[in-house]
Structures are given as C-alpha cells and as structure tokens.
Amino acid sequence: MKTLVNIFDPQEPTAAYLFLKQYYQEGDRLLFISTREDREDVAPYASLFNIPEEQITIISFHRSEDSYIYERICRRLRAQLSSQQEYWVNLAGGTRYSALAIQHVFENFNARFFYVQTRENLIVSSFFDNSIYDNDDTIDPIRYRMTIGEYLQLHGLNHDVDSRPHTPIRSFDDARRIFDCFKARRLTDPAYHTLELLRLHYRGSRRPVPLATIARGASRTKEAAPAIFSLLQQLGFVPQDPDRLTPAELDYLTGGWFEEYVYYILSRHVRPNQIAIGVRISRPGSRQHNNELDVVFIKSNTLFVVECKTGVATDHLFNEIVYKARALKETFLGLSSRSYIFTLKNDYDHHLAQVADIMGVTLCPKGTLTSPAKMRKVYDAIIRQSHEVKICDKVKGKN
Prior knowledge:
The protein is α/β, with parallel strands linked by helices and 399 residues long. It has 14 helices and 15 strands. The longest helix has 23 residues, at 247-269. The chain is elongated.
C-alpha cells in the first residue's frame, strides 16, 4: 500500500481532496504537511473518507518561522519518512518555497510526484529525472465530481443541503409566466404596490394568511392591499387554498419565483452535477454569520453561487449585494468559487456590471436575462469556468 501526501492549504482544500478521491485505495495511508495553525482544519478529510485516525499522519510547521526555512523543512520531513514506503506526492498547495523543499526531500525516497490543477480538472504526473526528452509525464482528467455538501464541508462549513428539500415548489411554467409578466411590464401599478406590501408585511410569515386579511389590512401597521386578487389574476397564480396564501406561497410571490426560474434555466442549459435553492451555511460555533445562498450549484468540482434579486432600488443597495457576494467568496466558499448576481434591474450604461466585475462578481441584469442570445453566452461562460474535461486522453503522454 502507498502513502498519499498532500500539502494542506486551508484556502483551497479541494486540490488535496480530489487527489485523494482520484488515487486513494483501501489500506492507503494519508500524510498531510501543514502549518500548526491549520492542523485542525485537516479533520474534514478523515470524516469524508471515513478513514481511521491511525492511518493519517500530520507533519506541521510553525507558519511564522519553520515554513519559510528550507533546511528546517527538509530535516523535519526526512526524520519522519521511511525508505520502505511508497509515496505519491501532490505538490499543489502551500507556498512555492515549501513545495520546493518537499520535492527535494521526497526525491530521495520511493516517490511519485503529481500536481492537481483544480481550475482545469486535471492532474499532472511527473518524473523528476535527468531526462526531459522522453515524454514520460502524463496529464489525466479528474474523474471524481464533488457534491455541494462535500464542497461546503471541506471548507469547514455547516449546511442544511441534506437535511431538507432544496427544490422548486412550483413548475417551470409557473415561474416563466411570472418572469414574462415582469419582462413585458404587464403588471399594473396597484399590482406592483401589492407585491411590495406582501414583501414588507407578510414575507417570512409562519402561518397561512387569508386573502381577505391582506385585502383589508391586518392591523393599523399593515396597509390594506385590495389589489391582491387582481395581482394573483395578472400573474396567473392559483393558490392551493383559494382563500389564503401559505408561508411558502408568500415567499414565492415576493421573490421565490425568481430563484426557481433561475434554478430551472441553469438546470436545463448548464446541466450542473447538483443544484439547490435556499441553502443555509454557517461557521461552526458562530451565530452571527448565518447566510442563505439563493441558488447554488456545482459543476465539475467548481461551485457557483447566484444571488437572485427581482429588484434593486438604489445603487447603494446594489453595492451591498455585491460586497456580500464578495465576502461569501473570500470568507466562506474559497477563491475558486464563482459568484453571480441575476437581477431584473436594468443596467443600461453597464455601470453596475463594472462595479460587480471589480469585486470578482458577474452581473446578469434584465437586459441579459430577457435576451436568449446573451443568456447563451452566460451559459457558455459558466461551462467554460467549470473546466469540464470531456476528452479523457487530452494531451496524455504528448507534452
């Protein structure tokens, strides 16, 4: 049996995970090289692989000193390696400086070297010998495809992906009919105002709300919305109970329909490995950072998050949405994740798109969402960003 070696990088843990998924066999041992500060972050690997702790070794260095001193790295590693073991070493992760030291040490043992290129979904296998003309390096596609839950767990996040349904409550035809109403601006002013009142007073309700109560106003603090019946008729929305709206239906009318519309079009045109609506994530032990992802999907091990906004009243509010998307990427989801904002707000002068682009977020405004040709470009861009490898023998043995 072999020992699979990874340089642990908490900022991008997927390289190590995909390396193990590609090559781990029952009975193999795992060796992680990490800083002492990141040592505890290795735990998700053991739980995801269900590997006994005695088969996992961690060699750790002080980030402030040891990890930058070549000789100390070499001495520490050499003292804990065995000439009787076969090592498969993934050089992705960590600093370039530490990777050079690790390569140097393992060259004196029975070792094979790999480099996991997550952005391309490829693994390079190299022989560091004296010949550079025998073409013995190979490039293989990563076969494994992570789930959303795996990705989030690798990044140390709690989530509810597997604890409840994250699928639409109504059909694509229902969502598309409402989208067409907004696209063609068919709703009357009273209907638009009623939507705002539903969002203000009833979204998040825990109990069904009678339509008559909405029409006359539930209290002095809740404005009457007599156009509620007209709104439902204009949208072609038929409640389960003709006399009331359930909490799920209230959420749907006040924006959930748009999330479902985005879910359906991405499912059909991008064909992700997994897609979900309304996934909640948080850091263990933290109550302050509990975030909900409107639409999240994974394709070829790349995670995509889409914020869905039917309307954005001001540029200030839009900036807040962009900052939130950027913060989610940097703080929770890793730099390799992709962030999008789909909105029914117009961006005639492309100013909003430029603001989003500066923050590493892609904006799809109303003008894009309503144009099949422009949306085709969006789908193609997402597929390219996922780097799905379709040709298994791509450049294998021909570099």
